[in-house]
Amino acid sequence: MSVRRTLPQREQSLIGAWCFADHYGPDDVATTGGMAVPAHPHTGLQTVSWLFSGSIEHRDTLGTHALVHPGEMNLMTAGRGIAHSEHSTPETSVLHGVQLWLALPAAHRRTAPAFEHHVPEPFTVPADGSGDVRISVFLGELLGRRSPVRTFTRLVGAELTLPAGAVLTLPLAVDFEHGLLVDTGALSVDELAAEPGEMVHVPLGAEQVRLGAGDAPVRLLLLGGEPLGEQVVMWWNFVGVDHDEVARAREDWQAEREVAGGERFGSFPPAWPGSLPAPVLPPLRLRPRG
User: Can you give the pTM of this predicted structure?
Assistant: First the structure.
């Protein structure tokens, strides 16, 4: 499966609390095999699954068994520890979407794990040039629409679709930094041009941004939030405050996966035939970022 990692980058580790963005597909599942991610752990973060085509089956150690389809969001809060698996469904022919992570602030990093499924109601706003812009706010708030899903910092996550030739002046929260991830079409962001798979960073202080579609419709994700205000250590599937916290999470996972779960990561569902081992930690201490 083709995957493009747009966050983190060497120049940009975080956008608000958004710390990870994998943009994948569109992939012909008959050729690539689709998504097949066995049981694996997470700590110190929230995962966000958002699809453009296809569907994914989710299982976790809370006992959740859920599907996600285009226009729907699965949000899993890892907190102190959870494990889950994700597989594209047999009915999926083309898989296309994003996997996003939110770093939990230190005060909430050991919160209880949780799972939420949300289907935002799309709405439209008029654009200059051609037609209306379609918007779905799946996290946070934008243009007066608010998602009911719980987050631990102020932020926004939304999908916007601009018809060909449309121009939209989008108001922004001035105390947020933002990232605009282009999925399809050629997008102009003020004076910048962005192609599919690219992310444009809009720093703090911007009151608005001018978005323009070229000769074809544009679909993009708006990700933003107030600066996290602290550094994090990210390694494999763990987020922690320092090297030692991440090393403990790895050690706990390695022990619990040998006995199909435990106190930290929960009991494995019977449907899981196995789980992913954690990689070996590098010989040097992990460095914080952000």
Answer: 0.96
